[in-house]
What does this fold into?
Amino acid sequence: MSNFGAILTTAGAAKLANAIALGVPLKLTQMGVGDGNGQPVAPDPAMTAIPGEKRRAAINTLFADPLAASQLVAEQIIPEDVGGWWIRCVGLYDDSNTLIAIANVPDTYKPLLTSGAGRTQIIRMVLIVSDTSAVELKIDPAVVLSTRKYVDDVMKEHKESRDHPAGSKTEKGMLRLATEAEALAGLLDSVAIAPKEMRTAMEALLDAVAPIGLVLPWVAETPPNDRFVLVKNQSFDPVALPKLAKIFPNGRIPFDPRGFGLRWWDGGRGIDPGRTLLSEQQDAMRELAGMFLISNGNSVSSPESVNGVFRKVSLGTNFLTHVNGTTQSNNYGVQFLSSLVVPTAEEFRGKTSALAAIMRVK
It folds into this structure.
C-alpha cells in the first residue's frame, strides 16, 4: 500500500456531489502547502485545513489527465524567492476557502534564494474524481506563474486552433483564403487571395476588358509582350493558343491591316454595303467633274467659261489653228488637272498616322 496519496475531504466530497447533481462546476482556486508542523501527515477526510500551512497561492493549471479520464491534475509553481521550509502536505481550496482535498508528499525542502541556493518548485496533486467535468479552475492570471510545458501546450493549442481574431483593413488577424469563385466575383473584403486564384481572377478581368482577338494600335515595331502578335494574315498553333483557335478554328489570322486604313464595318447601315468583317477594300475616288464652253464649232470661249478640273492654257505658236480661213497664233487648249480641286499623290489616301496593329492572342 502506498504511503502517499490524495483524498477528498468530507466537505470536498459533499461539494463535488452537489456540483455533479446540480450541473454547477466546483471552482478550485488555490493550493496550499504545509510542513505538517514538523511531522509526517496522514490525510484525514475530516480535515478542514492542512497542518503547518506555509503558503497558499493560486493554482496555475487544472486539467484532466489525458491518460486517465477520472484523474484531475492540479499544479502550482512556487518561485525561487519563496521558501525556507519543508513541504509534507498539499491542500486544494475552492473559491469559498473550503479545503476540498488533501495529500501528503515525501519530505521536500524548499530552499530560499537568499540562503545561497534556490529553485522554482512545481507542486502537482493528482486527484481521482467520478466526474472531471464537475470541477473547474478559477484563477487570477495576474498572480500565477506558468511552467514551460504549460506555455508550450497553450501555444500549441493556440496555433492549431481556428479561434483567432479575424483580420481587417485596419487590424491584424487571421484571414481565410478565397475560393476561385469568390476571387472572380470580387465581392468580399474579409478573405485573402492566393497567387493562383489571383492569377485566375486577373485573367478573367483581362478577358472581360481586353478579350482574345482584340486588335489595338501600337507605337513600336514589336508587341509589348507574348500575349500579343503583329497582325499580318499569319498562321498560329491552335494548341498553344486555344482561346484564339475558338475565334479562328483554321489556325490563321485571316487579315492583314498593314498599309490599310481602318474602316468600321457597315453592319447593315448601308453606307458601305456588301462588306464582310475583316475584308479588304481597294482604293477608289469620287468622280471629279468640270466644264468648258465652246462658242462655236472651232474656238474656245473666253477664260471665264472654264471651271472644275479644267483649266485654259495658252498653246502659243506651236499649235496653229485656222478660224474662218485666218491663221490664229494665240491659241488656247483645255487641260484636265485634278490637283486643281484636291491634293494629289501616287495613291488615294486620307490623313493618317502610322501605327502597328497588334492582336491579343493569349
In short: The helical segments are 10-22, 148-160, 180-185, 195-209, 242-247.
